[in-house]
Amino acid sequence: SIASLASAQALDEAVVRGMNVYKNVGNCARCHAWTGLGARVEEEEGRGLKTEPPKFVNSPLPPAALEEAVRCGRPGSVMPRHDERAWREVKCYELTQADIGKDIPDKAPRSLTDQQIKDVVAYIVAFYKSGEMTFAKCEAYYGAGARSCDSYKK
What we know:
Oligomer: single chain
Largest sheet: none
Order of helices and strands: HHHHHHH
């Protein structure tokens, strides 16, 4: 659970809030999986877009690049934009909606606030960029005793 993540790893509040955004608000696990290793988005196939999300585990992307991807989406992929101001009021990848035209990423079903975007990036950096999934990380995500974590027991 979120509380056990906070106590188990003594992570700051932004990371705890970010896990909530990842799991419950942004629906990130739908494409990126709880493991951050990505999951194929079959229902999006046939649109001519990249449907294999990048892996977060050990990702070389700096936090600012992750934040821009969450905020703006990724042109040419199924990654949606999570900031309703993206490409209009907020430039993305140094471009505007007029520059990108029809290639603008889809709008996510739920927009995120600036704080939620920063929090989910803090969570991605703390939880995924630190390495492979472990039993402790699985229980932090799903809760203590979750059967989903059995395969991570040593």
